[in-house]
Amino acid sequence: MKVNGVSKHGPLTPLGTADDIAKKYSEIYSTELSSLVNSSKDIEFDCAQYQFSAVAALYDLTQRLDLVKIIDKYCPKREPGLSVGTYLILAAINRAIEPVSKNIFYDWFKTTILVPLYPEASKESLSSQSFWKHMTGLNQNLILKIEDEISTKIIDKYNISTEYILFDNTIFFSYINTINKSKITQRGHSKEKRSYLKIIGLSLMVSQGNNIPLFHKTYHGNRRDSKQFLEVITKLQERTSKISNNSGYITLIFDKDNNSDEIIALIEDLIIQKLHFVGSLRFNQCPELISLDRSEYSPLVGKQFEGTTVYRYQKMIFGKNITVLVTDNENLRESQLRGIEENIQKCESEFRYLLERLKKREDGQITKGKKPTVESVSKNIKTILTGDYMK
After folding, report:
1. First and final CA of the chain: distance in angstroms?
2. Model pTM?
3. Domain segments of the chain: what residues?
């Protein structure tokens, strides 16, 4: 290590050979595993061959929350093999650590500490066919009921505040075959610029600070955010009323992509049911703020707001008299400007390269390849200007 720029050597402890290290950790894990696995099962195994820490931690969490019991209450066992709840938590643990297809799920399973914990699991019971056969017992109504109970238990057990909750829609691209007839995967605008792939939408509501998911809904990838928000807003209110540990108002926070006259009017009605909201506006909704003098802003109180000032006023937007807060943070502004400057430099560099190639084509130095046209050059320019704010 370095101290004041000078290299320093600390005390060294020899670890021994690779066999010594393996033996040492095998003994440690044997002790931990013996307390984790029911000793009455009299299971013997070599700890060194199993994935342990992350798998055991997630398994322990499922036990603390009784996830299998909650799921199986709504999806009683009908088929031979594992229960629906067991299938789901095993799949969830895999997704969190090392996602694999259901065709090779058992190959992953047998390398983990889950083997002695689920001795009834077999290659046949963990096959893709068996997994999806058990999933037919689930539907949207059951999933909502399961989510209600799990969310309530998490909030109560870990004292999660529901005073402020955050909502957002996002999309994910998928590798589902383009000729697949799936209704939920659609062509749409992908932020990753992968417009050639089908996308899936996800509505998610989480608690503030620790981001515990409290509601989810998948939707067609080509649906507008505001339309999706309008569809789920009453469901969000229903979920918050069921799981909330806050006797006062709940404040729902969302971004400008969810704005519309219809949504704001609906939320205003929900305020009667103790649901407040904080949204976000676009520049064209408050153009007068662009030229507002910074002397009009007041500093916010609190260490977490250090360096941030705010301007507060009332304005008619969406047919409502709404309180508008405009914040200004110098550090954030400088970092945003640096990002814009980097985009400008990148665009200028690409434009110089394009101009250089066009001149070489004009001078006869480049003769191979397709001759550029107004249409092809315009397309190149449009591609170069895809960075934020470059248009």
Report:
1. 48
2. 0.66
3. 18-135, 161-277, 343-384
